[in-house]
Design brief:
By secondary structure, the chain is an alpha/beta fold. 48% of the residues lie in helices and 15% in strands.
């Protein structure tokens, strides 16, 4: 009888998890690699596939999602923590039918939640998990001892790099740190600003080989984006490049990456398990 009850509980939990949004943290080892542009356009590519997507700008004080879309939000995550606004009230509708929570300026202790702040965030965030298919956290460049706690809460991590040696090394260092504290979280690699397909493939393969050789860490090659003038033109116009020119090579590439991710079209074996974002937050922020 107890076995039957346990099996039922597991089936209900599995069904519950399937109905909740997948959480993704997008990060880089250094700034200036196009991380926020990737987060924004990848989210729109998911939306074009009929997915409900929320982009959460976590680069507090230096967030630029709102700048990339030329849209000022009157409220940000700061208003949730400092002015008692509800999470649903600080969500704005962005281009391509995505939802956005901006980072704002002036807040420095977002990653140091006390129990009261955690409880309030928990109660409101659970409704967001039920209302979206994907929630992307566009993290600040690099990793700190505080931000790592939040990064470890998500289902998957996307690491953005470029072919530049310093960018590759910084991405390697970031993943080494993550792997040292959590060996189970899936890591996806995206190489931005490549001049040729060969350049993109070799950059990702070189990084993957180093991770396996020195850390025993397997990662998933999600794809690469070309160095396309469309991106700078779109940024100047404050329009996501996938909407600015859908036929551009970079726009086609981001659509391919979104398709590959949604369809789980990865090379090799990869196991994607649904974690419990809010339970992880309690564990990493409150030590419970």
């Amino acid at each position: 009888m107890n076995d039957q009850a346990e099996n039922l509980r597991r089936r209900l939990e599995a069904r519950h998890n399937q109905s909740m949004a997948r959480t993704i943290a997008v990060l880089s080892g250094k700034g200036g690699v196009g991380k926020s542009n990737f987060s924004l356009n990848f989210s729109i590519a998911l939306s074009k596939r009929g997915k409900r997507v929320l982009v959460f700008d976590m680069d507090i004080g230096m967030g630029n999602i709102d700048i990339l879309i030329g849209q000022h939000s009157p409220l940000s995550i700061i208003d949730f923590f400092e002015n008692d606004c509800c999470l649903k009230d600080i969500i704005t509708e962005g281009p391509g039918n995505i939802s956005i929570i901006t980072g704002g300026t002036g807040l420095t202790n977002l990653f140091s939640l006390d129990e009261e702040s955690y409880t309030r965030f928990n109660e409101e965030f659970i409704s967001l998990l039920a209302n979206y298919d994907y929630i992307l956290f566009d993290m600040g460049a690099g990793i700190t001892q505080d931000s790592i706690k939040f990064i470890l809460c998500v289902d998957e991590l996307f690491v953005i790099t470029t072919p530049e040696p310093t960018s590759i090394m910084d991405a390697y260092s970031a993943m080494k740190y993550i792997h040292s504290v959590n060996k189970g979280i899936p890591l996806f690699l995206v190489c931005n600003r490549v001049f040729t397909s060969k350049d993109g493939k070799e950059t990702i393969e070189r990084l993957q080989n180093a991770l396996v050789k020195f850390l025993g860490l397997e990662t998933v090659a999600l794809g690469y984006l070309p160095d396309d003038r469309t991106v700078s033109r779109a940024v100047t116009k404050q329009i996501p490049f996938i909407l600015f020119d859908s036929k551009a090579n970079v726009s086609k590439a981001i659509v391919d990456i979104a398709s590959r991710y949604v369809n789980h079209s990865f090379e090799g074996e990869v196991t994607l398990q649904k974690s419990d974002f809010l339970r992880n937050m309690k564990r990493y922020f409150l030590g419970k």
